[in-house]
Amino acid sequence: MSEKGAGAGHTYPPDAVQWLKRDVLLFAYSVGATVDELHLIYPPRDKLQVSLTPTKELHPQFAALPTYPILLPFKKTTQEVIDFYAAQSSSDGGIPGVPKLDSRRVLDGERRMIFYKPIPTTSEGKSFEVRRNVVGVYDKGKSGTVVETQMDLAEKGSEEIYCSMIGSGFFVGQGNWGGPKGPKGVNYPPPEGKKPDVTYEHQTQAETAHLYRLNGDYNPLHATPEPGQAMGFGGAIMHGLYSWNTTAHALLKLLGGSDPGNMREFAARFASPVKPGDCLVTQIWRTGDKDAQGWEDIRFVTSVKGGKVVLSNGRSKMKVVGQRKVTASKL
Question: Residue 249: CA atoms inside 13 Å, Cβ hemisphere, count?
């Protein structure tokens, strides 16, 4: 068996995906976009344009946040609430050489996105699909199994990729099946001895996860206490991708001028759960290291205020166009 595991290279049938303008508006608002970013939540038109075309709401600069596609594998083509467990079970289909894994006991491990071109604000008029393959399956013993996958968002019938989504899921307590342990992870620490360039606070509420789940991620773990109690969390916890996406938005707002085109990559490791009502604190460091195209390496760490780190190994590649002084958000 290879280091990547028996299932490495397994390819799933592509999933058709669709989204509307209202989906990208809801996503932006649910992860913290504010009225000083109206091009993300209600793009205004100037007075002359409004007088000439009063029925057109959306400004030509209306844009989707770059991490929105991370929701599409959950949402697929539906606008309706779904049975999360049934949907996950039917889409998994099993991995050759790997025991059947229970999607009711899975947590996010790490997520990375690479953005090649901006997605349109609606899929209308085009056919998109998510292509998914297994990168590796790792047996972590009694604690569980890690499944690493790569998903690419592409226009159907085209080889042009809009973004790649590389991620790992940790299947709690589902290890000891004789698989490989997997490679050692690479760490991306903040610059040693340097204070953060920006610190950002984001306050969650008891209902925050209930708004965020309307994006299509209807995992009951984030809505009702029973699944979290069964997994030892004491009750409902926030979506890991909520913390991940709100942090991505914070970096884009504070360093990238809220322009989705100013983020090339974004990645972080999920370190500990967040409870509804927690305040998230993100510390952001500029490294000054740029590639030939001007993309600067950024490092960040997100923690619960006064508590544990929730996103570690945080890194991004960005075009930094300024450094905003906004340091707090509330949702």
Answer: 25
Token duo for residue 15 = 């999933």
Instruction: Give 232-237's long-range contacts (Cβ < 8 A, gap of 24+).
Output: 233/273, 235/275, 236/209, 236/275, 236/276, 237/273, 237/274, 237/275, 237/276
How many whole angstroms separate alpha carbon 209 and alpha carbon 30?
9
Average pLDDT over residues 121-144: 95
pLDDT of residue 59: 63
Q: In b/e form, how buried is each residue of 127-141, taking b as 16+ CB within 10 angstroms?
A: ebbbbbebbbbbbbe
Mean pLDDT over the full length of the chain:
91
Closest to 187 in 3D by CA, of 295, 287, 314: 314
Interatomic CA distance for residues 306 and 281, integer angstroms:
9
pLDDT digits (tens, 9 = 90+) for 228-283: 999 999 999 999 999 999 999 999 999 999 999 999 999 999 999 999 999 999 99
pLDDT at 60 over 70: no
Nearest to 113 by CA among 312, 317, 326: 317
pTM of the model: 0.92
Q: How far apart are CA 7 and CA 19, in angstroms?
A: 31
- pLDDT over threshold 60, residue 326: no
HEC-encoded secondary structure of the chain: CCCCCCCCCCECCCEEECCCHHHHHHHHHHCCCCHHHHHHHCCCCCHHHHHHCCCCCCCCCCCCCCCHHHHHHHHCCCCCCCCHHHHHHHHHCCCCCCCCCCHHHEEEEEEEEEECCCCCCCCCCCCEEEEEEEEEEEECHHHEEEEEEEEEEEECCCCCEEEEEEEEEEEECCCCCCCCCCCCCCCCCCCCCCCCCEEEEEECCCCHHHHHHHHCCCCHHHCCHHHHHHCCCCCCCCCHHHHHHHHHHHHHHHHCCCCHHHEEEEEEEECCCCCCCCEEEEEEEEEEEECCCCCEEEEEEEEECCCCEEEEEEEEEECCCCCCCCCEEEC
